[in-house]
Amino acid sequence: MKTPARLGLLFSVLVGAGALLLDQAAKAIVASRLDLGRSVPVAGDVFRITHVQNPGGAFGLFRDHGNLYTVLSIAAVAVLGYLAARGRIRTPGGRTAIGLVLGGAIGNLIDRLRFGRVIDFLDVGVGDLRWPVFNLADAWVVAGVALFFLLSMRSGDPFDGKQTDAGGDALG
User: Fold this and answer.
1) 76 CB contacts (<8 Å, ≥6 apart)?
2) Cα separation of 23 and 100, whole Å?
3) What distance in Å separates the CA atoms of residue 100 and residue 45, rounded to the nearest whole number?
4) Is 159 helix (H, G, I), strand (E, B) or coil?
5) Choosing from 138, 157, 160, 165, which is the catalytic residue?
6) Exposure check for the chain: N or C terminus, fewer CB within 10 A?
7) What does the pLDDT look like over 101-127, one tens digit per residue?
8) Residues 6 or more apart whose Cβ sits within 8 Å of residue 170
9) Among this protein's residues, is 120 annotated catalytic?
10) Three-class SS of residue 118?
11) What span, in angstroms and rounded, lies between the C-alpha atoms of 10 and 54?
């Protein structure tokens, strides 16, 4: 692996490690200071810290299939780690996106392996109209995927940075 590819990999690893550290630290604080099911308002009723544990997938879907999410998380981490390690991601935005997704996926994977469920705590909404409680790992995955799509719309290839035509062929 050439030096620029190594630096790119190091950048992705640092982004992922930072995302993972923040996620795990926040979950540890919530789990140690807030009883399960309890809620603390941060910005009135709009933003609360609520300690819940989710044995299912996103938004509490498929609660009886936690092992499936563990397997899918391991597969996603392996594929993304392979792409990053092979130096296939050459743009700073692509490296940031892959780091965020890896950090988030590993954060929730750690919870599933340790507890058999994911610790969620970010609770937003108004009154009874609330978004499902989520965590920082979820936010990192969504931010990474959103960044990936924004880069795709802008350059056609978020990992390589080459401009492509409508047929996907590289320009210039």
Assistant:
1) 101, 105
2) 11
3) 29
4) coil
5) 138
6) C
7) 999 999 999 999 999 999 999 999 998
8) 157, 162, 163, 164
9) yes
10) strand
11) 32
This prediction has a pTM of 0.83
Enter the tokens of residue 159. Answer: 């990992």
By DSSP bridging, strand 47-54 and strand 39-43 are antiparallel
C-alpha distances (whole Å) from 83 to each of 5, 58, 67, 102, 160 are 11, 24, 24, 11, 12
Per residue in 27-58, pLDDT (tens digit) is: 999 999 999 999 999 999 999 999 999 987 77
The torsion angles phi and psi of 96, rounded to 5 degrees, stand at -65, -45
- For residue 162, which of 89, 108, 103 has the smallest C-alpha distance? 89
What are the C-alpha distances in Å from 142 to residues 32, 40, 101, 145? 26, 24, 8, 5
**C-beta separation of 107 from 137 below 8 A:** yes
Is 111 annotated as catalytic?
no
End-to-end Cα, the chain, rounded Å: 25
Q: Which of 23, 120, 123, 165 is catalytic?
A: 120
Give me the residues paired with residue 40 across strands: 49
Give the whole-angstrom CA distance, residue 77 versus residue 20: 13
